[in-house]
Automatic annotation (TrEMBL):
HAMAP family, alphabetized: NDP_kinase
Active site, per annotation: H115 (pros-phosphohistidine intermediate)
Cross-referenced SMART domains: NDK
Binding positions for ATP per the UniProt entry: K9, F57, R85, T91, R102, N112
Start and end residues of each Nucleoside diphosphate kinase-like domain: 1-138
BP-aspect Gene Ontology terms: CTP biosynthetic process; GTP biosynthetic process; response to hydrogen peroxide; UTP biosynthetic process
Reactions mediated catalytically: a ribonucleoside 5'-diphosphate + ATP = a ribonucleoside 5'-triphosphate + ADP; a 2'-deoxyribonucleoside 5'-diphosphate + ATP = a 2'-deoxyribonucleoside 5'-triphosphate + ADP
Name of this protein: Nucleoside diphosphate kinase
UniProt similarity note: Belongs to the NDK family.
EC number in record: 2.7.4.6
Organism listed in the record: Gossypium raimondii (Peruvian cotton)
Key words of the record: ATP-binding, Kinase, Nucleotide-binding, Transferase
Length: 148
């Protein structure tokens, strides 16, 4: 089973979308393996977005992420990174299909509600950064009803 890192950004938390977003991943059949409500400090935000540090929007992105609490999560399932990105929608909400999180709940790219790992390698790095204590190890009793 693959794992991914998903973060509901401050705008998603402030708008009360946490339950809706968690529900979409649960209804798909993915397993929640880690969950934190956290206020991120600047140095931590800079580590998380280090790969974007040369971009002109980096400082604004860091300021946005530290502006309020976020919900950090680990989700597990078959092809969860790729499928999770499909559930989330395109980075630019204007390009996100209806039915995706960003397509349904976001308008501006700078307030796009949610972050999701873009590869298995990124997921490993992000999970290690956000959950140094490691994911919770459990298996749902409905597992055989979702996976062959």
């Amino acid at each position: 089973m693959e794992q991914t890192f998903i973060m509901i950004k401050p705008d998603g938390v402030q708008r009360g979308l946490v339950g809706e977003i968690i529900g979409r991943f649960e209804k798909k059949g993915f397993y929640l393996k880690g969950l934190k409500l956290i206020t991120v400090d600047q140095s931590f935000a800079e580590k998380h977005y280090a790969d974007l540090s040369a971009k002109p929007f980096f400082n604004g992105l860091v300021e946005y992420i530290i502006s309020g609490p976020v919900v950090a999560m680990i989700w597990e399932g078959k092809n969860v990174v790729t499928t999770g990105r499909k559930i989330i929608g395109a980075t630019n909400p204007a390009e996100s299909a209806p039915g995706t999180i960003r397509g349904d709940f976001a308008i501006d790219i700078g307030r796009n509600v949610i972050h999701g790992s873009d590869s298995v390698e990124s997921a490993r790095k992000e999970i290690a950064l956000w959950f140094p204590e490691s994911p919770v190890n459990w298996q749902s009793s409905v597992h055989p009803w979702i996976y062959e």
